Amino acid sequence: MPYKHLNIVQRKKIEIALSQGCTKKEISEKIGCSLSTVYREISRNSIDNHYIANHANEQAISRYATLKNRGKFNEMLAKNIFDKIKWHWSPEQIVNYFRLQGNSFVCHKTIYRWIRIGLLQNVIKFLRRKGKAYKRLSDKNIMRGGKSIHDRPQEANERAELGHWELDTIYSPRGQKTAIVTIVDRKTRLLKAQIVPNRKAKTVSNAIYNLLKFEYVKTLTADNGKEFSYHRKIERDLETQLYFADPYCSWQRGTNENTNGLLREFIPKGTDIANVSENDLHYYTTLINTRPRKVLNWQTAQASHYFK
């Protein structure tokens, strides 16, 4: 029997039945509600383990009024939501951002409902789209002389500290050479990225150095793409160790794969990256690094990395 709201008559019956020593199961049969409804009603609305029908009814009415007002659509609430959605925040990120500020706020499902019925207009183009998982199409090889991910320090596996980075490249359609080198910290999810004219190993290794030369670096993890074949040079330049995931095991670098997916929302697959400027890329990475993340307890990657 599903949960339903009780009325004053049913609450009076509960009060009388309790005074007569009836069990909660017997009460549920008397008032025609589920046993869980009776348990919930008595637990929520009793005072010092005493259930009084009139008090219980007043409490229920007050609680319902609070919930109803919290979910009421108004122009100020709509503006707050729209201001965040246009920065490509998801409804769930918006809700938790305002709740962390100590504000009462509607749930993310309510925001989606308002969008669906047209109360929030002109926001669809800003919403994050969910598509097929991004799959690399580059040539693979088992990296010669490279260190296996299975030998990577436990601190990196457990995301216990800063400085353990995952590496990857995002590339243009076939026939186009321009690519983006992406680097993500495993602990804080901070994204760093740079456009490169090609995916040659020397070009990519130089980009990695430029992105990380002022960062704290303990380990690097990459796939077996040939663009990372200058791994010894990378290790020397950054005074670190580079580990390679197993071939065709993208889940071993899940942080970077997921972050590439976030970047692909702004640079969809099939886009010629030669048409993307460094200013554009900087703007996209800033949006990603300054939005609250569920995995970071609704903190931003930027704050988690640089201010903690």
Plain-language structure description:
- Residues 149-308 form the Integrase catalytic domain.
- Belongs to the transposase IS30 family.
- This is IS30 family transposase.
- Keywords: DNA recombination, DNA-binding, Transposition.
- Helices cover 43% and strands 11% of the residues.
- With 308 residues, the chain is α/β, with parallel strands linked by helices.
- It has a six-stranded mixed β-sheet with strand order 1-6-5-2-3-4, sandwiched between helices. A two-stranded antiparallel ribbon has the order 7-8.
- Helix 1 (8-19) packs antiparallel against helix 2 and helix 9 (201-212) packs parallel to helix 10.
- The radius of gyration is 27 Å and the shape is elongated.
- The relative contact order is 0.10.
- The model is unreliable at 130-141 (pLDDT under 50).
